[in-house]
Each structure stands twice: as C-alpha cells, then as structure tokens.
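REQUEST
  id: r-88c1
  op: predict_structure
  target: Peroxide stress protein YaaA
  payload:
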Amino acid sequence: MGFIVFFSPSEDKVISQADKDFSLSRMQIQHQQDSKNDTIKYCQDKQIKILNKNGYFSNAPQVDFLASLWKNRYLHGYREQILESYLDTLRQILTKHDKILLKEVYGAKNFTPKNEMELNLALQQNTTLQAIERYCGVAFQALNFTSLSEESKDFICNHVYIFSNLFGVICARDKIPFYKLKQGAKIPYLNLAKVYEPFLPLLDDFLSQTLPNPQDFIIDLRASIYTKIFTPKQQNFFFEFQKENKIVSHYSKFYRGVILRLLSQQSQWRDSQNIDFETALVFFSTIEHENLRLHSITQKKTTTIVKYDIL
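RESPONSE
  id: r-88c1
  status: 200
  body:
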C-alpha cells in the first residue's frame, strides 16, 4: 500500500544568496572587460554571458541541472528544447523591450528595475535550489518547509511531485534555477498543454508501477489549471475550500500548503506502509486545524472530493 502527493508550483520564486552572488560576479566581470577594452565584445543587447575555462564568453546557459530532474533520461532533449524556447523569449523581451511578451511571461505591463533584474537573472540558469525551497508562493509559505523537522522534510522530498509550468513534473527534491513564467502563459511551445505533452504517457506508466494496488492513492493538492492537464486513473483525493459557501482560490492555495504540512508531521504518514485509502479518508474527515471544518465528502469516479469550510 502506498501513496504520492501532487502539488502545484507558484509564480513567486526565491532568489537565493547564491543567485545574488553569481549575478554580482557577472556584473563585475563585465565591468572589468569593458574597462580594459578587451577584444571580446559584448553584444549590443548586453545579455549576461558565461565565462568558460578558456576565458571566452558564451550565450549558452548551463543546463547540467536537467540531468537530475524526474524521468530526464526520457525527457532531456525535450526539456532542452523547452528551456531554449524560454530563454529565447527572455532575450526577445529584454533586447526589444517587448511589452506584449513581458505581460505574457511576467504578468507586468511595464518594465521596472525589479522585473528587468529578475528576467536577467532567469537567463543565467547557473545556481539551483530544491524545487520545494525555490517556490515561495502562498501554498509554500503555509508549508514553511525550512521550519519542519528532518523527518518531515524527508517525507516531502520522497513523496511530493510538483507540476512545474516550465520543467514539467519534478520531484520536490529536484534542484531547479530561478525562473519567471506566468502560469497559463499562451506562448507557443511554452503553454502548459505543449510542455506536458510528452509527460502524460510517462505519468500513466509511473503511476501504474508505483501505485499498483487497489488501496494505493494520490493526494492531489494541485490547482485546477494543473488538474485539467492530467487526471490520474488511480484513486485520488482532491480538496476544495469554501468560505460563506463560496469556493475561494486564494485561501485554497494556502490551505493546500497547510494540509501538506500536517501530513508531513504525522508519524503514521511518514511510514506509508501503514496507510491505505480508508485510513486516509478517516484522517481527512477528522483533520485537526483551528481554521478548517469538514463540510462534505463526495465521490466522482476515482476522485474523492473533500470540501472544508474555512472558519
């Protein structure tokens, strides 16, 4: 008997100290090169360049991190294509000051020092963090991963799969760089349907092998935009949150993070051999949180919908 957890990413990402240090080092190298009037000339677009061991600058990002992502032995070439399309889009935004693309990718109408800095940082692709630490939106704030015990962190790293909007399905422990890409972006080759196209058969195979027993299940903590991309055939729990009889999306993000935190803190969940579907149903029916109260449980094919009132 076993289970896994599906989780959504967030548009907000952590900029780590390593990101800042690397960005600063690139600026210093550029300043030194400019001041020495080196024969190596920068392109007019002032893209951030990467210094290789021979002392030459290259536009190519470091993509070594791709090799460690979930199922990358089957997906490496595809992920490289998606990543290059993304980086080309960033270059177009920055070199042409393309406000239409800026809004589609970043969600902003105008350029600001902040979004230009973040887009330049996204071009570097050189420093990485675990995905569960890189994302920092509402759900991840509620989870508060860094404050958890080592046992709880291990539970999350071993059970949680995040549906990234750029890298596809990744494990919580997979390391990814900083990036900015609005969820639901409609850019060719970067929309969710296109990104996830080769993932769907792999997901089906993975789930059938990982969860082969009738009592195995999925805890689906994804937002609806991701549930529309892929619907598991296995038994699964899906969660809705309402306040004054109205479904509230912002609170839903927060309480999905709360539920994941509660799960990770339960010793019985950390030993997944002791959890079957019926045991999970009892847990979600009697969940203890001061701001949540069970409203209803309904069944729709293989999906058990657990609805909570927010107090």
